[in-house]
Amino acid sequence: MGMPGLQRVTWAPWRRAAAWLRRVPVADPIDRRNAPALQILLIFLGVEIPLNKLYHLLTYEIQMNAAQLAVDIGTDSAMTVAAWSGVLMIRRGLVKPGTAMFITVTMCCALIANLAFGYQLQAFDPYPMLLLTLAALVIGRGALWSVYACIPLMFVLGMGSPWGQPPSGSGSRFQNLPSLALSYLMITLVLDRTVAALREGLARAQHAARRMREEMRERERVQQRLLHMQKIETVGQLTSGISHDFNNILGSIIGHASLRHRIHELDFDAASEAPQLADALEGVEQAAQRGISVTRKLLSFSRQDLLVPVVFDVGHAVQELRPMLRQLLGPGVALEVTVPAQPCTVRLDRSQFELVLLNFAANARDAMPAGGCFSISIQHEGTWTLLELADTGTGMSPDVAARVFEAFYTTKPTGQGTGLGLAVAWEMARDAGGTISVDSTRAVGACFSLRLPQASTDTPAHESR
Fold it and tell me: Which domain holds residue 146?
């Protein structure tokens, strides 16, 4: 039982070290990926080179003159300083300059060492391969071929050095030069092609990612425009009902205001009729408030805003929207709303939810040209809120029901529908983590079931209005 805790304690320093290595102020994605490995390599070399030299000085008999010893210690010291300086430059975001500096110093030290000791006196040297790989992966093709150009020069200086020795049984010091030059040429060509392919692949991937981000942004913009168009269309369908409502409001105001003529009549008694005038003014105020409420609701609904999910009670929202639903359905369609006693809170964009309900009402009205009933039922279903929106209209065939949530699919005549209403409902349900389905029978009607996950009232961005 103690092992997991011990493992967390053991790995915690390594995680902090890895995080420290990744915290490099670099914008280029390739440099950002290379920075941790480069730092580890340079830190290793900055420690290994002086320790290795100290070990050799303490355990082996020195067979060098004073000048060679100075060159040996001087080149190792220069490479050590270059390694630690490279780490500091990378920490400041100078990945390519730091790597180029280390490659340059190391290559100069190699040239000096080969001139001072002769190539044949050197053991296997991994540094040419290391420098080629660093130049190709970190800096680019120009650095790769520049390093390769220095490698044959290093061999020539080493083989031509007074301390150079010819291979056993041969009288020529340069016998192995062609094969060494060609071998490193092949390695350089492989690195050149491999790194070029990797960089081209990464460039294509980055280009594809940028295009995808642009397409996603454009899709969001198009979605917002289409949603706004759908709102405007729905507001247009509401205008006739709203006009009738405003006529009633204005008629009520005119009726109450007509009582002012009593002031000029001969039998006007200010003391007894003042309460009637006060009631008339109150009626004018109430009618004006109803007009303001309708106007604000239309302005709030039709504005073009980004989708902002908030937590609200579905039942309360439906009750607030009831006057607009009533106007949209017309006098021939009955409206029934069933709301539970307990709140049914969901997290949605309030404006989008209202648009969906109005779209369902408009579709139900169009499906019941001779009149009928449109019902909205809200109930708890475990951790879900279930909305059932049913009508007693003409219904749908199975083929139409299977495609009813497709964008731009509509069975209405041209110019009478965009095919976006139910697509918006499907997308809203999907984004909220819910589902939507339809059950319809010809000549009987249709019932849409919208299941939405319940949200806690403690969720941020709670709204109650």
Answer: 3-175
